Predict the 3D structure of the following.
Amino acid sequence: MTATAEALKPKDYKSDIRPVWCPGCGDYGVLNSVQSAFAALQLDLYNTVCVSGIGCSSRLPYFMKTYGFHSLHGRSLPVATGLKLANPNLEVVVFGGDGDLFSIGGGHFPHVARKNTDITLVMMDNHIYGLTKGQASPTSNTGMVSVTTPWGAPDPASVNPLAYALTYGATFVAQSFSGNPKAMTEIIKQAISHKGFSYVNIISPCLTFNKIDTFDFYKDAFVDLPDDHDKSNLVAALDKAVNPPTGKVYNGIYFQTQRPTLLDGLKKIKEKAKADKNRDLNTFIDEFKP
């Protein structure tokens, strides 16, 4: 990441476009924390890209003064990977919701995680499809009544994003709550600073369509991970993700480790192949002629 000559403030990352979320939406809190985290890290406006797919939360790049890419539904992760590979000096941060990232986009997540692609993914999890007016999502509670499941969602289980990220090899996995801006800002800062694939699950209640997973419920449910939690222990992290205390949700960093990134692996291949951008193409073709 590149620091600018003059210290930037959170307001310096705000675009001229006003957010259009419903009054009280948790995504407002996420946006404010993102701008605060960017300012704390002094991210260069011209070397930072916010990428998203489709959904309420995926509007976020519009409200940032950095570069932005509003991609297709579920395709934010491959777009972000391409950006990082094309220009490794960019700070690439992806934003999306549970429907966008774990339904139509769910097939991309495992590979970005296992390859340890050096990008940050911030998911605003409201347990419902908001932009398309309240259908049950992959993270909705079993049996949730919605406009498309009036007798309850038939799925026998919902996706646990934290367990998913941990199982597929993300090297930074954390969770926070849109109603706790201080903790959320700090976690986003650490996620961006981490070298490798960082996943941050942010519970961001939808006041319009989800009357079960409400702000008031999570305000009382969120507790910090225990002080003795070992974030280098994958098994301990999985246990905390799958077995939180009854009626409680953990805030904090579940897991963090270091291992080579996708770019590190590609660099080694280039060295082995003696890659040379100035190499004559015809000479290269001749080597592979039958």
In short: The chain has one domain: 10-260. Strands lie at 48-52, 67-70, 91-97, 120-125, 172-177, 198-203, 222-224, 249-256.
